[in-house]
Design brief:
The protein is α/β, with parallel strands linked by helices and 390 residues long. The protein has a single domain, classed as Peroxisomal Thiolase, Chain A, domain 1 (3-Layer(aba) Sandwich), CATH 3.40.47.10. The protein has 15 helices and eleven strands. The strands form two sheets. It has a nine-stranded mixed sheet. A two-stranded antiparallel ribbon has the order 5-6. Helix 4 crosses helix 15 and helix 7 packs across helix 12. The radius of gyration is 19 Å and the shape is globular. The protein starts with a strand and ends with a strand.
Length: 390
């Protein structure tokens, strides 16, 4: 039987574009903060898990190896996880397995991305990952694939652009209260402001898209006996789940993310959750595009298919809701920034802080006993879910 696993400390660097620090230095800073909060020294860490996206993003070949010493992995077992945007949450799952299995008592999970190093732009990297015969000749990038998915989602459920824009309004407003928010991302926007920004690939507007970001995040996880020795109030990893659907996105109906549902069901089963709409009190779904938050909330079974937009209009997902489920109280990727792998780990950290009651101005109004972080990525087919509890 797996042993219980706890989170004892977390660290998050400032989100920015063109950070002066190298990727190694960003990883070091986040790891240092996590260790300090856990009141631990790097010598007390048994193993290190690193999450970081394609090497091209940092402009460094074999960057998992390159980042190892910055992440504190010198002369320690070291593993790199990578499933695109889902990497940050999957890395926690990876670390959970290492500790829950009894192989290690402590694990430092680090996620890093220095996307401004990718020249000329990260979207230029994405074309290289698609099928070289069927898709790459089309000049594929994520922006226009998401426009197809967003259009399908809107068409099936008769969702207006104005409703989708409300996600950006909510998250950019929430992001004003996050200490790590990237400059120029958060703000008090209206629906009109969002829809007056330039069209990237219709119906995707610029202010519905998360930015290029440099940052790192880190979390210290430990076994139950180690956690109880060090603190009276650990935060527990109660459930984990993941799913990899087919990478051929043209073979799927894009209106609904089944891969998120399968990952969520796995995590709910592990956590013993029967009714997630009543038992999940705060949620951080992955929101690189405005519609994706709604898409993912439905995949997480927190709303019926097509219902998330209607609940959004009613304020059900707002941070100050008392009857609903606060979604992306951090500001998410739209309101804070999107350093790919580090973005997913940032969401786990936000749930951790909400459960500890240490989220500051971002602390939700309702009582929080259990929260969920979710990330998604690769070729639109990866679902990763982590559930935390007091």
């Amino acid at each position: 039987m797996a042993q219980k696993v706890a989170i004892l400390g977390a660290g998050l660097t400032k989100f920015m574009r063109r950070a002066k620090e190298t990727g190694k230095e960003l990883a070091f800073e986040a790891a240092r903060m996590a260790l300090e909060e856990a009141n631990m020294d790097i010598s007390e860490i048994d193993c290190v898990v690193m999450a970081t996206a394609p090497d091209m993003f940092d402009g460094v070949h074999m960057k998992g190896d390159w980042l190892s010493d910055g992440a504190g992995a010198k002369r320690k077992p070291y593993m790199r996880s990578y499933v695109g945007g889902g990497s940050g949450v999957f890395a926690i799952i990876h670390g959970w397995y290492l500790v829950a299995s009894g192989l290690f008592d402590t694990c430092l999970v680090v996620a890093e991305e220095k996307m401004s190093s990718c020249m000329p732009h990260p979207q230029g990297a994405f074309n290289a990952i698609y099928d070289q015969f069927l898709e790459r000749p089309l000049g594929v990038n994520l922006l226009w694939i998401f426009s197809l998915e967003m259009m399908r989602y809107m068409h099936v459920h008769k969702i207006s652009l104005e409703t989708i824009a409300l996600v950006s309004v909510k998250n950019k407003r929430n992001g004003l209260d996050h200490p790590c928010t990237q400059k120029g991302i958060a703000g008090e926007y209206t629906v009109k402001d969002i829809l007056n920004s330039e069209v990237i690939a219709y119906p995707v507007y610029r202010l519905m898209v998360s930015p290029v970001t440099d940052a790192a995040a880190a979390i210290v996880i430990t076994s139950e006996h180690e956690a109880k020795r060090r603190t009276d109030n650990p935060i527990w990893i109660e459930g984990v789940g993941w799913c990899l659907d087919t990478s051929y996105w043209t073979n799927r109906d894009l209106y609904y993310p089944k891969y998120v549902e399968y990952a969520a069901r796995m995590a709910y089963d592990m956590a013993g959750i029967k009714d997630p709409r009543k038992e999940i009190h705060v949620v951080e779904p992955y929101d690189p595009f405005a519609y994706k938050e709604l898409h993912h909330l439905e995949g997480l079974l927190l709303a019926d298919k097509g219902e998330a937009p209607k609940l959004l209009e009613k304020g059900f997902w707002d941070r100050d809701t008392k009857d609903g489920i606060p979604s992306c109280p951090s500001g998410g990727l739209l309101g804070v920034g999107n350093p790919i792998a580090a973005a997913g780990l940032m969401k786990v950290i936000e749930i951790y802080l909400q459960l500890k009651g240490e989220a500051g101005k971002r602390q939700v109004k309702r009582e929080v006993k259990r929260g969920l972080a979710q990330a998604w990525g690769d070729l639109m087919q990866v679902g990763t879910v982590v559930i935390l509890s007091k």
